[in-house]
Each structure stands twice: as C-alpha cells, then as structure tokens.
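Homework help board

Subject: predicted structure for assignment chain

Our instructor gave us this sequence and asked us to write out the predicted structure in token form, then describe one feature. I got the tokens but I'm not sure how to describe them. Can anyone check?
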Amino acid sequence: MKGYIKIKELTLPETIPDLRELNNQVWKKRILFYLLFYYKETDNNEILQIIEREKQKQRAEIETVIKKHILKWFRKNMKFKRDGFILNQEPSSEWGLQGFYDLKFQHSFWNNTESYFAFECKNLGKTKSMTCSKSISEYVYVKEKSREDGGMYRYFIGKYACEMNFGGMIGFIVGKIENPIVALIDKIYSVYDNNLVGKLTKEKIIEKSISGNHNTFDSIHIRQNIKTKKDEEFWLHHILMDFTYSD
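My token output:
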C-alpha cells in the first residue's frame, strides 16, 4: 500500500432519481477516486513481476499487460461494482486489436450511459525499446514524416471524447525518468502553450489537482467541437503511476 497517496471518497446517493441528477463533476471525482485507490492498493511487486514476464517475450506489450491488470482489479472490486460503474476497453481492444479508448468508465444513470470518462494510457521512461524523450512525446505529441499523433493530441482532433468536454491520461512509469511531472509539463507547454490545436487556456496547468496528490495534474485546453465547429474548453486529468520500485 502506498500510504502517501491521498484519496477522498465521495459517497453517491442511493436513489435512482438522485443519481440521475448528478453532474459530470461528481461522476468524475468518483472515478478519479477509484483510479487513485487502485494505485494506492496495488502492490508494485506484483506489477514488476508482470513487467518482467512480459519482457521475456519477443514483442513485449508492457502497457497492455498493465491495462489488463487494471481491468481485472476493477472487475473484482466489490465497492466499484456496487456503485454500478462499468469499465471497458473498446470491443476491438478487448480482442487484442487497436481500440479507441484504453479505459472507458460509464454508469447506467449517468445520462443513460451516454456520458463517459475516457482514459489514454502511455508508458513513460527509458526502456529497452524507447528513449525517455520519445515516451514523453508519445504521451504529449509526436510529429514524424509518417504520422502526427500523441496521447493528448488525440483528444484535440476529435478522435477521443468528442462528445465530452474532459478526458484523462494515465502515465505508467516503467523506466528511468527524472522528474516525470516536470518533464511532462515542460513538454505540454512547449507544444500547446501557443498552438492552434489544443491551445492551453485559463490556468493552463493545475498541479496536484486530484486530492492534492503529487502524481496528478490537470491541463486546460481549447479545442474545436467537431459538430458545431466552435471552440470549447477541454480539461485533461493526468495521473502518473510509478511502477519502477518495490513496495
């Protein structure tokens, strides 16, 4: 257990009419609570063993096995199930193909499951197959001759969460990286502080944004709504999970 992770549990109402009246902020806070609860309770030694087993394969998919661990934990967690939440990957991703969302949280009474909280997951740090700077770029934004991509960038081009005004990023720290929050924030500023796509706005970056935890921050952006073609405010909630040490 990671005692330094602070979690604030928000109790949901018990009646269906009251649940239907909850706004997005309440649903988001409950989902973010559960993600921090997962990280707080998960034994890093277990994740390290999973990573080491995966490294033995010819083509290691470390990000995939950690996501599977998260899914398994949530599907076994009785509190989460009693709350009535649904957590899925996109159907194609469940069968080993590329899906749209890594993690997608919904609830039957959250706008009749039309609303959701989507998360994109990315590995961070120097590994055998990736440099530290490359992992940060893949998280934030990458432009090459063959592609323009990045976990955050996908939210700003209407690929992710086009019906919502918020989304999430989870960084799995699986390799050596110094000051990951600082490195990410510096990269976000360098890409989005004055960019037409995903431009930072208002407070721009809010550190320790989720219950005061040092491994969290929010970034606030402007993106064009793909339906109305009007600019709108979009919030990204970031959680970093460090799996490089033993508990």
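Reply (TA_rk): Your tokens look well-formed. For the description, you could write something like this. The chain has one domain: 16-242. That's the kind of observation they're looking for.
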